[in-house]
Amino acid sequence: MDINSLLSPQDSPAPGTPPAAALRSPSLQQSPAHRSLRQHPPSRTPSNVGQPTSAYHTPTPPTLQPSVAASLNSRPLHGATSTPPVESHARIASPHDAHQTPPHHLLRQTSLRMETLADLASSMQHQQATSRQGTNTPQATQTQPSSRPSLGSLPSIPRSISGASGVDTIMTDARTFTALALDETSRAAAVEYDQKLVDTSRRDYSSHVGLVTVLHNGFQKLLQDAPSPATGGPVHDARLLDLQSVLRDAYENMAKYYALGEQLWQRRLEDAQATARTLEDHVHVLELYTKATEEEPRSSKIWASYATYCRYLVDVDPSSWREDDRDAAPELFTHGLLAGTLQDGARRVEDDLAEGNLVWDQYLDLLTDDLERAFDAGKLQDVTQAFLARLSKPHATWNETFGRYSSFVSRYNSERYEDIMQTATSHYAKIKEQYEHRRDHEFNLLQAAHGGDVNVEYAAMTEYIEWEKKTLGQFSLATVNGLYERAHLRFPEYAVLWEDHIHFLHKHSNRSIPEPFEDLVQRAVQHCPWSGYLWALRLTTAEKNGKDYEAIEDIKHSATKTGVLGYTDPEGLVQLEMAWCGYLLRRASNATEDQEDKENNFEMAIRSALELVQKSAPKWNDPQYRLARLYIKFHTVRHSPNHDEARSIWKQLTPHHCNETDFWHRYYTFEMVLGNTSHGLQPKEATLVLENALQYLETLDRPEQLIDIYTNHCNHHESVEKLQSATIEQRQAELLVARRRQREAVAQYAAATREHEMRLQEATMRDAPESEHQPQQELMEIDDPSTQTLKRTHDAATYGGAGEIDDTMSEAHSTKSAGREKRDREHALVVVSGLPEDIQLVQIRKFFSEAGTVKDIHFRDVDGRKFALVEFDEPDAADFAIARAESKNRIGDHELSIKPGQGTMLFVSNYPPVTTEQDIRKLFGRFGTILEVRFPSLKLNVTRRFCYIQFASQEEAAAAREMDGQKIGEGDDTGALIAKISDPNARKQRQGATEEGRELFIRHINFAMTAANLREEFGKFGPIEAVKLPIRGDGKNKGFGYVTYKDKKHADMAVTKMHGTKVWGLDLIVEISKPPATKHRGTFVNESGVGGEELAPAPVRERSLYVLDVPDTVNLAQIEQLAKPFKYKRINLLPKKQGAIIELHDVKDMAAARLTIDDFEIMPGRKLRLGSGAELKRSTEEYRPSYNPALSKKHNQPGKQPPQVSNFQPNTTFRKTKFAAMPGRKPDWGSQAEKAAEAGQEPSKTNADFRTMLFGKKD
């Protein structure tokens, strides 16, 4: 018999490998963690995954009946033709099992089981000529499948472990399933899936999974209905054999494109085991198990099932085999096969915290049983080391393992039992604690898995991974690696997890990693073959590791031959081709011989790559034109450079990228590099490129930058004649761009105004019933707080919480300020340090005048150093200021440091409501220099609870992100702190049950009802997600509540059925909840009481404190904390009036409260004062000076800002041009005079008043 019929080429044992004999082998005398490894290349081409494999259901796979813990010599024997039992082992196939562990791919170790297969193949060679039909054994006659090839025919029918022979043999026509034993629904589904596979050239992953699932379910159902072995056995059922043949083809066709993953492998193994009767059948199942453990080497479920199946074969009664197999079977299915399987499996799953015990328990049982059967001092040492190796790894059943170790020591070393156990307890205490620290995360994973929501489960897994990386210790690298592997098994098609895993190991490459880096990348492309990024990593990794050209070429062809890469996204194909062509270019450039052949090789490859990308995506153009740029480089660095060919490529790219400044800058740089400017020659080609670019000023993305490049180029490299011409062209170009920017600004301002008016109209219509008489009501509440009526609020809205974050991510993000454009402070800010102590605002403004319009300047003195926060009117101006700092960074004798503000500002939220600026500085001060802390104004929304922390550098802000996720403070009003780098573009729309229409607002509820009663009444319309029933101080509800359904249709049904229905004697009012309107004031009622009120309380006015000069950044919680010692009844915060009203229970507390509150410093430099209700009524909102003092007063009024023109203006005041006197708009003389002053020009004497406003009076 040919060994290739049993083993794939990579699994063939090395020549001279001795066969495995007894259990007492060298491999069993070592701990699984200390055995040597043997590398194997991948066995087939991996492929793409279209949908998560977690989406399909996995039935329980077959497991075997004999007890794992039983002694090999004491287990009952069974017949070779009996069906392997499938119900005795714990469930290992459910995608939502208690602990799901993904695979860890380690390199193959020399195994007893494969060596035994090789020996058997040799010993069975004489049986190949013997016909199976000549066997006189009744069992052989009954169990031989008619459609199964005989063992002797295997050499003529090549079959690898995977069963895949190559993509070129894939069927292209749809199959018919009419003859299969499937019900009509399953048959129709199978036809639909197969037709879709034909339409997509067998590339659609979900259709592969769907087809396999339909056929698998039909096969398992037919197995249940088939006759039992006693009455003929299922192997004689022609329907079963036909369906099994089609199912086997479906598995093999899918395997040609895609890695099956743990769940599909369990199905395939279950189907193969179901009809395994002959020696050939069982060998085929072992081949499949070998292949499964190679693809998913860290799957505890597959390894446990593999060991159980081997144990089943070892327990077969030798006399039950067919006569021609009776001698070979016992030699093949030996105790060594089982031992080698468990030994390999235990080593590979040792870092599986959740399910590694499935294999390790069997492994330890095997060792202890063998020691019990034949005691030996060497075996005793081996078993002891195995127990200690297991105890040194944290796992879910660590206590049970420790208990087994205690029993083991008590039996074999009882005289030293106490010393040994005491030492073990102290030595492994930290190991035990490691799992305890992770128990909550494991429980969250289990809970998410049982919930059935893949997104929730993925979120729990990624949160677990981030926690592990954040708490990474010196010896926990393997634990983090193991967790990543669990994630890969559960979500094998999530390329981002593979990328993160690779980056993690690369980051810690200086430490001992659990597996070879190249092997991880190889498995990544097997499971995510559509990812060009992963394929590019595999190519570069192979090149870095010194692989030869043929090996790297095979990798490249493996990526492209299936057609999966680039099938839906050409970006992945470009990434692969860039890696391949980049390798060929380096190979040609570094060649010492045959350089011309290698250059020709590259040129063929790059042309082929460009054609392939164009063919894959005819309408797609690479925005970075990476392959073309690589081709251009080749023409400039080759042995015989061809600059004309390189220029022709640039010209071919021009129509596609003519509106991109970056393209023209690259083109210009190319010509400058080629031009010989070092000898005084004028770079005419480079000048021509810039002149061509100026023809696209109306459509260029950044025309100002290109004009600046053109001007500088002519100044440095061209003749005086060309310079004069360029100066004139520059002015014309600047005029053109200025007019373009003016049109854009006016259009943008008009669009923003229309959008704001629409939003304002929508908000007015939505809130009209509640806010129609709001102004009069506000004055009434100031006169008498007791007349206030409680408005609808959510439970968390008392102080404002995380629920408000999405709507208030930034003060600048809010689009509710009338007529105000969105402010992008983060990207338009620069941080300036190294300033002189006597620096003035005008000096800073003048220094940055060339960059653009300065919107705001703030000086900050920190630890004897002076900083300036300079904000421009647009991000481009800030970028220009930073770029210019390389050449102009001095004011007087002081050298300035100018850094970008982007990434230096931290957005912080979800802190305790009473947190002050001092608390924030104390909490975050250890991370770096804090320049300022900004709290939002509460005038627009009193429920805001966030702030911005401005650090001096990006590194300090990034370090402060360490606080993200930590809980600060105590109580239910605080959760995990949110600390993220501020980004205006990250603002999200509010999401939740209210916005989705799934939340009901219910009024007129009987005060005696509880949340459980409410759930019972509304639960009959659909699954309920949450019930909120606010409770008063006396324990009764407030008469209203909220019910949130999981589906909007159930909420709509409940409104239809329950609105107006009498429940507990009252007619309910049920409606869909509406998003709460913005709260301009906040009220807090102390419902807990004070233990006993006055029989006749004094009038409200006599018990009320009117607090004035309250900063509009002070929230309700801070006022409540101030009033808490005085038994208050109600607090009303009025940010628009810069005040608050505190109503006390008892007039006797007024004196003490006045002494405490009056002149109290609520924040640095801001003191409260007490006044009358009339004073509070006359108060107005807090004045905030304009962030651009140079603008006129009318332009600083909210809602009246004119559109901002680009900061890139021509060097003229335009006083006599038509542009300066556009119809319908007065010339902005103040703005032009400011620019003239900043440019160093002398403004007209008639503008003295304006100069005084801008620069201040002269001394």
TrEMBL record:
The keyword S-adenosyl-L-methionine does not apply. One of its GO terms (biological process) is RNA processing. Gene3D superfamilies: 3.30.70.330, Tetratricopeptide repeat domain (1.25.40.10). Residues 145-159 have a biased composition (Low complexity). GO terms for molecular function: RNA binding. Residues 88-99 have a biased composition (Basic and acidic residues). Signal peptide: none annotated. The keyword RNA-binding applies. Residues 1-11, 45-57, 65-85, 122-144, 1203-1214 have a biased composition (Polar residues). It comes from the Eukaryota. Residues 828-903, 904-984, 998-1075 form the RRM domain. PROSITE patterns: RRM. Keywords: Repeat, RNA-binding. Residues 1-104, 120-159, 1177-1259 are annotated as: Disordered. PANTHER family: RNA BINDING PROTEIN. This is RRM domain-containing protein. The lineage of its organism: Eukaryota, Fungi, Dikarya, Ascomycota, Pezizomycotina.
